[in-house]
């Protein structure tokens, strides 16, 4: 074969491959999908789509057909007391925005309420109890010990206070300390 014929064949091959790739991309992105047959009327008022699934029929306005889990027919599902993947019933324990809610080792929740500046705990029955009569207004951050028997309270001006709820003892910590954490027995405090 001559060099000229080889060049022409290479050019024809390149154009053929380019055309096939172009057609493939066009088919993949721009060509319409498979045609779907029109629904056929079913005996009983509904229609079936091409894949055999029933399509909802027309309903009269104002009529409600109860669904499973909708005992009163208002269109809302009933809440379950157990979180099992559906709608779960909840109980509001506090309406205040809380800071640093912490679950202690007993399963109780301890938190700081910025509205009144006090510390509270919620037991397993949902009872809210005051941890201390002391008030710490405008606290910015709170770090509880594991038992929630004490906490480090940080204020916007940089001051830090260690407060023991069982003895109502308060200790002022240096202003430059930050990122507090307690030891497992809550006898030691670490910071940066």
Q: How is this structure best described in words?
A:
The protein has one helix spanning 3-29, and strands at 40-41, 47-48, 54-55, 99-103, 109-113, 118-122, 128-130, 141-144, 150-154, 160-164, 169-173, 181-182, 189-190. The chain is of the alpha+beta class and 192 residues long. The strands form four sheets. It has a four-stranded antiparallel β-sheet with strand order 4-5-6-7, with no helix packed on it. The protein has a four-stranded antiparallel β-sheet with strand order 8-9-10-11, with no helix packed on it. The chain has a three-stranded antiparallel β-sheet with strand order 1-2-3, with no helix packed on it. A hairpin with a 4-residue loop joins strand 10 and strand 11. The longest helix has 27 residues, at 3-29. The model has no long low-confidence stretch (mean pLDDT 82).
Short description:
The chain has 192 residues and is an alpha+beta fold. The protein has one helix and 13 strands. 10% of the residues are buried.
Order of helices and strands: HEEEEEEEEEEEEE
Proportion in helices:
10-25%
Strand order of the largest sheet: 4-5-6-7
Rg (CA only): 35 Å
Structural class: alpha+beta
**How many strands appear in the DSSP assignment?**
13
Give a quick account of the main beta sheet: strands, pairing sense, barrel closure.
4 strands, antiparallel
What is the overall pLDDT average?
82
Overall morphology: elongated
Distance between the termini: 82 Å
Beta-strand portion reads: 15-25%
Number of helices: 1
**Oligomer type:** single chain
Unreliable stretches, pLDDT < 50, 5 or more residues? none
């Amino acid at each position: 074969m001559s060099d000229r014929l080889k060049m022409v064949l290479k050019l024809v091959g390149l154009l053929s491959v380019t055309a096939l790739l172009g057609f493939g991309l066009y088919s993949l992105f721009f060509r319409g999908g498979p045609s779907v047959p029109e629904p056929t009327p079913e005996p009983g008022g509904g229609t079936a789509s091409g894949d055999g699934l029933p399509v909802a029929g027309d309903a009269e306005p104002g009529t409600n057909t109860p669904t499973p889990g909708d005992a009163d027919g208002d269109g809302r599902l009933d809440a379950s007391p157990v979180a099992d993947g559906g709608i779960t019933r909840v109980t509001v324990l506090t309406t205040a925005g809380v800071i640093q809610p912490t679950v202690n080792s007993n399963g109780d929740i301890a938190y700081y309420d910025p509205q009144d500046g006090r510390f509270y705990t919620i037991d397993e029955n949902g009872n809210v109890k005051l941890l201390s009569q002391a008030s710490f207004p405008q606290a910015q951050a709170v770090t509880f010990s594991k038992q929630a028997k004490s906490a480090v309270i940080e204020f916007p001006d940089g001051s830090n206070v260690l407060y023991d709820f069982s003895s109502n003892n308060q200790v002022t910590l240096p202003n430059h300390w930050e990122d507090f954490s307690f030891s497992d027995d809550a006898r030691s405090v670490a910071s940066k």
